[in-house]
Amino acid sequence: MSGLAKFFVVINLVLALFFLGVSATLFQSQKNWKGAAESSKEEADNTLAKAEKMKEDLQGKIDVRQKNIDSLKMETEQLGTQVTQLHNSNGDLRKEGARLATRIDDMESRIAQKDEHIQDKDSNIGRLEDEISRLTTEIDAAGSAKKSAERLRNRALLDKEQLSQQNEALNKEITALREDFDNQKLLISRIVDSGIRLPDIGVITAPPIDGMVVGVQEGVVVLSVGKDDNVQIGYEFTIYDGNRFIGKVQVTKVLDDMSGCTILFEEDGNRISEGHKASTRLSS
């Protein structure tokens, strides 16, 4: 028996006892038993009507509660279904969590490897920075050497230009000496043709002077002695290779530290060349 049915049984018992009590009271205190009975019946009817009203209200409440119970049962079933789904989802999530944990372990391993690679790269970067510093120092030194080389090159170019100018001047002098030589050869030829002895004319006695042949070009011999060594135009120099006689030359042009000469004669089979000794004295 449900609690609601028990409740109604208790109500009926209470009403019955109330009716009996009222009836007994009326029978004892009233002389009009019929009127008392009718009054009691009327009260009992009113009480019964109230009880019926209460019963209807309770039944309405019971119906509402039953609906609520049915709704709760449906919600419970739905919740059970959702719980089952959540359990399944939880299982899937656990599998996904395990898979993610595996991936995390793999990523951590890769990160550790990357850290090792980064440390290696940092070490390589340090070595490269040291190498760059060394190369920078070498580049700076090379730059200084380059500047020095450029200065030397510019100086060499200037020296080359000066030497070119000097060479040009020497070429002009050599050309002039060659012309003088040709003129002197012509003059000597005329003198010889006139029957005059050559040693008696234009021969200047020279003091002892020793030098060296520093160049020979187109019949002009350049000696390493000049005005600074008291050389004068007309001096004659004997040319030797060691102690071997090579020939004789005569000064036709004098500079401060060198002089230009024409060749008077050369021994057969010998040629005056650079490096030969020149002296105004005869070597024994």
Structure in words:
With 284 residues, the protein is an alpha+beta fold. It has a domain at 202-279: Beta Barrel (Thrombin, subunit H). The protein is built from 2 helices and 6 strands. It has helices at 3-29, 33-193, and strands at 210-217, 220-223, 236-241, 244-254, 259-266, 277-279. A 6-stranded antiparallel β-barrel has the order 1-2-5-4-3-6. Strand 4 (244-254) and strand 5 (259-266) form a beta hairpin. Helix 1 packs antiparallel against helix 2. It is rod-shaped, with a radius of gyration of 74 Å. The protein starts with a helix and ends in a 5-residue tail after the last strand. 10% of the residues are buried. Residues 196-202 have low confidence and may be disordered.
Estimate the global geometry from the Cα principal axes. rod-shaped
Q: How can the largest sheet be summarized?
A: 6 strands, antiparallel, barrel
Low-confidence stretches: 196-202
Q: What is Rg? A: 74 Å
CATH superfamily label of the domain at 202-279: Rod shape-determining protein MreC, domain 1
**Which CATH first-tier class of the domain at 202-279 would you pick?**
Mainly Beta
Helix/strand-derived category reads alpha+beta
* H-E string: HHEEEEEE
CATH topology of the domain at 202-279: the name is Thrombin, subunit H
**CATH architecture grouping of the domain at 202-279:** Beta Barrel
Strand content: 5-15%
The number of helical elements comes to 2
Overall pLDDT confidence:
78
Strand order of the largest sheet: 1-2-5-4-3-6
Measure the end-to-end span.
171 Å
Number of strands: 6
Multimeric state: single chain
